[in-house]
Amino acid sequence: MPSFRRSRLRTVRRGERKVRLAILAGVGLVMLTGCVSRYSTRTAQRDALVDEIHRFKGTPYVYGGATPSGADCSGFTMTVFKRFDIDMPHGAYSQSKMGKRIRRGNLKMGDLVFFSTGRKKRVNHVGIYLWDGKMAHASSTHGVVVVTWEGNSYWEKRYVCSRRIVDF
Q1: CA–CA separation, 96 and 64 (whole Å)
Q2: Which listed residue, 7, 16, 34, 164, has the most CB atoms within 10 A of its CB?
Q3: Which of 54, 73, 90, 161 is catalytic?
Q4: 73: annotated active-site residue
């Protein structure tokens, strides 16, 4: 330990230039640590989102349901986001009014995607965007599933809008 301290002192005494370099390196390390921390937090949130979706995968469709034993589309999204302390109404149309509107080309994991699957052109279905054009949603025939919706003519025709509730 003493030899480390002596060599450190000699380095400091050799000139102000090395001190500045050491300070810059320290500031850089602090900045990098902050970025890593934020990155780690986001990664942890994404992992938690995927875990929560997997917990629901295979859950049967139950109109008005919002539990892993039975859920409809908005009950599924409402319960998943509850894990992140976000209160949402039960209803796709009501959920489509929350958060920030996002262009389809700017979708990120965790964004909500809304569709009109009925005769009226009104939002009545919601899913959670994952990645590569995939979403998790509660299908009335298959329960909670992950599907590729981008490039799928059924979903493409029915897409209405996207919202970002939280930035994962």
Answers
A1: 17
A2: 164
A3: 73
A4: yes
Does the pLDDT of residue 25 top 80, yes or no? Answer: no
Pair (94, 148) in one structural domain: yes
Annotation says 137 is catalytic: yes
Same domain, yes or no: 71 and 128: yes
CATH code at position 119 = 3.90.1720.10
Residue range 160-166: mean pLDDT, rounded = 96
Name the pTM for this structure.
0.75
Please compute the mean of the pLDDT values over residues 114-123 and round it to a whole number. 91
Catalytic residue, chosen from 54, 90, 137, 142, is: 137
User: If you compute the radius of gyration of the chain from its CA atoms, what whole number of angstroms results?
Assistant: 24
User: Active-site residue among 54, 125, 142, 161?
Assistant: 125
pLDDT score of 155 more than 60: yes
Q: Which amino acid is at 26?
A: G
Instruction: Read off the DSSP letter of residue 100.
Output: E
Which residue shows structure tokens 């958060």?
99
